[in-house]
Amino acid sequence: MSITTDEDVTAESVPPPTKRQRRAASIADAASGGLRTILIKMVLIGIVDAIALYAIFILALQQDWIVLGVVAVVTAIVNWIYFSRRKLPAKYLTPGVIFLVLFQVFVVVYTGYIAFTNYGTGHNGSKEQAVSSLMAASLERVPDSPTYGVTVVDQLGTLGLLVTDPDGEVSVGTNEQPLQEVQGAELENGKAVAVDGWTSLSFQDVIARTDEITELAVPFSDDPNDGAIRTPDGSNGYLYTSTLEYDEAAGTMTDLTSGTVYTDQGTGAFVAEDGEELRPGWQITVGFDNFVRAVTDSRLAGPLIYVTLWTFAFALISVASTFFLGLFLALVFNDMRMRGRRFYRIAMILPYAIPSFLSALVWAGMMNESFGFINQVLLGGASVPWLTDPTVAKISVLIVNLWLGFPYMFLVCTGALQSIPEDVNEAATVDGASPWQTFRLIKLPLLLVSVAPLLIASFAFNFNNFNVIYMLTNGGPRDTDAPIPVGFTDILISMVYKVAFTGQNRDYGLAAAYSVIIFIVVATISIIAFRRTKSLEEIN
Amino acid sequence: MTEQQPVPGTQAGLLQAELREQRAAARTGGDPELQREAPEKRPFSFGRWFKATGWRHLVGIVVVAFALFPIVFVISSSLNPKGTLTGSNALFSQIGFDAYARILTNPDVPFTTWFANTLIIAGITAILTVFLGSLAAYAFSRMRFTGRRFGLVSIVVIQMFPQMLAVVAIFLVMTAISDWFPAIGLNTHIGLIMVYLGGALGVNTYLMYGYFNTIPASIDEAAKIDGAGHARIFFTIILRLVAPILAVVALLSFIFTVNEYVVASVILIDTEKQTLAVGLVKLVSNPRYADWAAFSAGAVIAALPVVLLFLYLQKYIVGGLSAGAVK
Question: Which InterPro entries match (chain B) (predicted)?
Fold first, then answer.
């Protein structure tokens, strides 16, 4: 990276501004701003503050105090920066830094946290949420339940039930809010039909939202064992109780029909003595479990090892093959006497200009074993298993990545070659060196100096080259022995994606643990590479 | 660029040394003695031509065939009126635009919506990335403040971790955001753009920073003496002078966003909200959907704007690439 220009010189020769100079500069700045600038600034900060205020209001309603605090502090800092006379660099850096911190730094830290939890399918929320959803899932109508008069009501999009019990008492509640008594409801034939703060649904609305209404189960009280009111038709409600009984003190769930006792053994779920687990469970911190599991569970460790090896092989071979082909072509076409080089050049750049996800999909079609162009036309009806045999699929991936990557290396090498002065060549020729010697001993080292950082960057890019793997083979052929959806051409990043987002069981914790492992590998390589190329020295 | 000099036809096939001699002869054209020493123009010899440049054309033809054949294949199958994958194998056997009509009008495949989504998301991301990046590059290039060096180094280091590695965390953060503000959370374009803007500082800032440094600071100083404030200098003077690098960064960011699959597939859930990458992958991964011709037509339409932009800005991109950006 050629970052340094004349700034080292200026940084040394110009003394840091004195306090007076700085004050003068800021006054000049303010004076030059004019009314319009100040107005624009006020409007922009006003918008930011209004959004922040709205956010704080919502967060207060949901009682997310930590997030609320963060929003408030960030808003305060932003106001302080933009109303201050100084802090000029901060004014320019803040917008980008906010996004950088939230979606680049924070998510990395958060990945680290998730790696230590059992987050995933069946372990999505808190223990209370798990309890209430278990109870709600096993609700059964109490056989001799009295009939409750029910009106479906709506508050800001949340449906609730306005319930009149057989004694004439009126209460209202939603899926989340247990029934609470209300006063002053509007009655009709002894049944409450409307109440302040809620909109009663018309008959048409009830019909339109039937699905939502039949899902409604309004808890009777804070104790989930008391059951819930449900309504099959939107006008009559019945008491439903769960076939599960929750004992908060003992931390157990008892199935009333079978008598099985499920206990909380600290694994984030209620487990019966025979090992049967109630789903959903809840999210807990599991320490190094995910890492230990990834490395020691034999069914997981095998895939992790061969995926890691293949990731390195894939990245290294891709860089080497694209570089050598690109360099070769750059040498071939770097001859002034050759005609039509512009045409060749444009034709060769085309693969690079096409979005890579499209090219990979097209190649996947051409490499189809039974119908693809390569087998059917180029090989005259052969059936080479381009994408379905573990070894051949790896070769296919490398070929396609060569196709995708060589134009870049061609461009880069052409640029680097042309920056080597012609005198070098002449001097070597005079000294009696053969063209090959000139190239190998003089041009190549010179070339590598300028291209080496790009090769490292290219390695890092290919190390996480998700698109070519996922679009071409989808990581396949699938390894049927592994409990996670992993295949023989998967690289680490596509394995993370598949563990987290495909398959029956999403295992965010394990995926995050894999991410952390990749972070460490990439960071180590980057640090070594940085030391080597010493590019940091240029940044001064 | 030296290689774009026109090469006169008479010089084709001559070796470098002969060329130099000829030029020397041309320079000293007035001297009859030297002119006599200059070699006679030799008759055309295929062997000599082949040794000098002919074999290069052979290599060129092979490489061009390798580079172009998937492209030719996809164009051919997009013109096949009713093509399955097998039917597409006979190149240009039939020509018609039915496949294009199918992909554009099929009610089950909202191709035009995907296309529009992609252009909107990639366009806005590109513009905002350039804006945020150039703000930062201006501060780093023109101002001296404590933490400047640290800031530059930390941007490089942070940028080394690809965002898609943190995709699980991004998904969970966006899920949490949608609990509070559904308008910018999961399944929204704004949410996705915000995630992409996390990478707005980074390699792009570096490219721009280098370019900003080549603009002499005396221009700023002159403007300052004339009474311009920092904002006016930035918006009305500097941004115009650095326009070429802004175009390159915008294009690189645009192409990156068009290509991005991982984060987009996780955040955009509804079919109507998805981008081309997410939608088309789903389209061909469905084995029952055997309309390869329609997919090819979609691919051609999708690739066209990017390819044209790329070829149009080719010269700048090559410069930008050698300065350290990787697609």
Answer: BP-dep_ABC_trans_perm, MetI-like, MetI-like_sf
For residues B121-128, give the mean pLDDT: 95
Query: What does pLDDT average to over chain A?
Result: 82
Closest residue on chain B to A406 (Cα): B67
Residues 6+ apart with CB under 8 A from B47: none
Distance CA A79, CA A49 (A): 8
pLDDT at B129 over 80: yes
> What is the 8-class DSSP label of residue A217?
-
d(CA A435, CA A160): 85
Residue A183, classified by CB atoms within 10 Å of its CB into exposed (0-12), middle (13-18) or buried (19+), is exposed
Segment A136-190, tens digit of pLDDT: 777 777 777 778 888 888 877 778 888 888 777 888 888 778 888 888 788 877 7
Nearest C-alpha neighbor of B286 from the set A532, A420, A230, A361: A361
Q: How close, in Å, is residue B29 to chain A by CA atoms?
A: 23
At A216-270, the pLDDT tens digits run 888 887 777 777 888 877 778 888 877 777 777 777 777 777 777 777 777 777 7
CATH fold label, B108-318: MetI-like fold (1.10.3720)
pTM, two decimals, is 0.79
Residues 6+ apart with CB under 8 A from B88: A365, A373, B73, B76, B77, B80, B292, B293, B296
Q: Which two tokens stand for residue A40?
A: 């624009």
CB A130 within 8 A of CB A282: yes
Q: How many CB pairs under 8 A join A and B?
A: 335
What are the residue ranges spanned by the domains of chain B? 46-103, 108-318
**SS3 at position A161:** strand
Q: Which residues pair with A148 in a beta bridge?
A: A237
The H-or-E segment that residue A170 falls in is: strand A170-174
- CB A409 within 8 Å of CB A322: yes
Q: How far are the Cα atoms of A281, A480, A506 from residue A483, in angstroms, in the given order?
A: 20, 8, 12
Beta-carbon neighbour count of residue A101 at 10 Å?
Answer: 14
Query: What is the value of ipTM here, to two decimals?
Result: 0.81
Compute the distance between CA of residue B306 and CA of residue B317 in angstroms, rounded to an integer. 13
Contact map slice: A 497-516 vs B, CB within 8 A = 497, 500-501, 508, 511-512, 515
pLDDT in tens, B40-90: 667 777 887 777 778 888 889 999 999 999 999 999 988 888 767 766 777
Let me know the angle formed at the C-alpha of A312 by A308 and A318, rounded to the nearest 5 degrees: 140
A 252-281 residues with CB < 8 A to B: none
Residues linked to residue A192 through DSSP beta bridges, in sequence order: A187
For A219, residues 6+ apart whose C-beta sits below 8 A from its C-beta are A132, A173, A178, A179, A226, A227, A228
Strands (E) in A186-260, as ranges, are 186-188, 191-194, 199-200, 218-219, 228-230, 236-242, 244-247, 252-255
Closest chain B residue to A460, measured at CA = B160
| Residue entry with tokens 């590695």 | B165
